[in-house]
Design a protein that fits this description.
Belongs to the DegT/DnrJ/EryC1 family. Keywords: Aminotransferase, Pyridoxal phosphate, Transferase. By secondary structure, the chain is an alpha/beta fold. The protein folds into 2 domains: about 230 residues, Aspartate Aminotransferase, domain 2, CATH 3.40.640.10; about 130 residues, Aspartate Aminotransferase, domain 1. It is built from 14 helices and 15 strands. The strands form 4 sheets. Strands 1-10-9-6-5-2-4 form a 7-stranded mixed beta sheet, with helices on both faces. A 3-stranded antiparallel beta sheet has the order 8-7-12, with no helix packed on it. Strands 11-13-15 form a 3-stranded antiparallel beta sheet. Strand 5, helix 6 and strand 6 form a beta-alpha-beta unit. Helix 1 runs antiparallel to helix 8, helix 2 packs parallel to helix 8 and helix 9 runs parallel beside helix 14. The two termini are about 25 Å apart. The mean pLDDT is about 95.
Length: about 375
């Protein structure tokens, strides 16, 4: 099997779009109604139906949704927002874009989610919000986070970019805090190419989002009235139609990914690597299957080994305070302050995972990793 697939690339992730998905887009293109319209409304209702959220807003991308959420909560210059030190760079950037300061907290190495035991030590008189990330599709410990937020009267914005369909003790990601922010990037379970979703239970906050995403135009005002300095953060109707079409098979996508995860967990020999774990009470959406290698040299050598066999992997996320912009601005002693985040960044590896990935391809990845780890003994 391994030799038969030797010349066939296995990618980290590739979106799968079937003929119904393509036709859904074609129908919108032929209608001529391309901008935000009925298909966006339908997508927002589909997200509400899936998550149990009262309100959803489709926007141009997942970073825009985080930015809008913070702005709608009034966060800006002089404020602080607590974020995990290990996440995609957009988590920190969204805070910076408001003029507020991201305050980084280390993560658990077992889950790669924010270490809730370190939250209270990071809270100051300037703290206005906690932004937990459901890293790779696994919910953070939201009961504890919400209790801390309530105690200190802080907002909560869930960065659920990877976590559409994930849940924590029966409650869906994106429905715990003031806002939940999802991404529709091609690596996600459903995609619009670029796109995002913002969920909330609060009608006043929902109205703010729908105003800010559309140039500051008050929704449902006739004649049109500009009531804020807003953005063009809209999603098009053909993008929304593409996502709604994929959502009809969302449970099938999750089932397939879980079967691939089971193959990885059963087949990988843990010589120098640690497999991801899922705490009780959680349903993982498995946007990413992220392993932890024993050291950076081992990880980088494994990347090169897999690439030489046409298997493509990548770092799972960044240790944000170690990135050039943040390191130069805030002068963090990253290895001392955020040791787990730095290890997750320097020793972590995302393996191929997508709806399009076959079991045969996963077995080929397993075989090549086991070959490498056996050679390292």
């Amino acid at each position: 099997m391994m030799e038969a697939m030797a010349n066939t690339p296995i990618f980290l992730s590739r979106p799968y779009l079937d003929e119904e998905d393509i036709q859904a887009v074609v129908d919108v293109l032929r209608s001529g109604n391309l901008v935000q319209g009925d298909k966006v409304l339908k997508l927002e209702q589909n997200i509400n139906d899936l998550t149990g959220s009262k309100f959803s807003s489709a926007v141009s991308n997942g970073t825009a949704s985080l930015h809008l959420a913070l702005l709608a909560l009034g966060i800006g210059q002089g404020d602080e927002v607590i974020v995990p030190a290990f996440s995609y760079i957009a988590t920190g950037n969204a805070v910076e874009l408001t003029g507020a300061k991201p305050v980084f907290v280390d993560v658990h190495l077992e889950t790669f989610n924010i270490d809730e035991s370190k939250l209270e030590a990071a809270i100051t008189s300037h703290t206005k919000c906690i932004m937990p990330v459901h890293e790779f599709g696994l919910c953070a410990n939201m009961e504890v986070i919400m209790a801390i937020a309530a105690k200190h009267k802080l907002f909560v914005v869930e960065d659920a970019a990877c976590a559409i369909g994930a849940s924590h003790y029966g409650k869906f990601a994106g429905t715990f805090g003031d806002f939940g922010s999802f991404s529709l990037h091609p690596r996600k379970s459903v995609t619009s190419g670029e796109g995002g979703i913002l969920t909330t239970q609060n009608p006043a906050l929902d109205r703010k989002i729908k105003t800010l995403r559309n140039h500051g135009i008050a929704p449902d005002r006739i004649p049109m009235e500009f009531v804020a300095a807003g953005f063009n953060y809209r999603l098009t109707d053909f993008q929304a139609a593409l996502v709604s079409s994929q959502m009809r098979r969302l449970q099938q996508i999750f089932q397939h990914k879980n079967e691939l995860v089971e193959l990885y967990n059963q087949g990988l020999k843990q010589n120098g690597i640690v497999l991801p774990s899922v705490p009780d009470g959680n349903v993982h959406s498995w946007q990413t299957f992220h392993i932890l290698c024993k050291d950076e040299y081992f990880r980088n050598s494994l990347i090169d080994h897999l690439k030489s066999h046409q298997i493509f992997t990548n770092y799972g996320a960044q240790c944000i305070p170690a990135m050039t912009y943040y390191k130069e601005k805030y002068k963090y002693d990253v290895a001392k302050l955020f040791p787990n985040s730095f290890k997750a960044y320097t020793c972590g590896l995302a393996l191929p995972m997508s709806e399009r990935l076959t079991k045969e391809e996963v077995q080929a990845v397993i075989n090549r990793i086991n070959q490498f780890t056996n050679d390292q003994k």
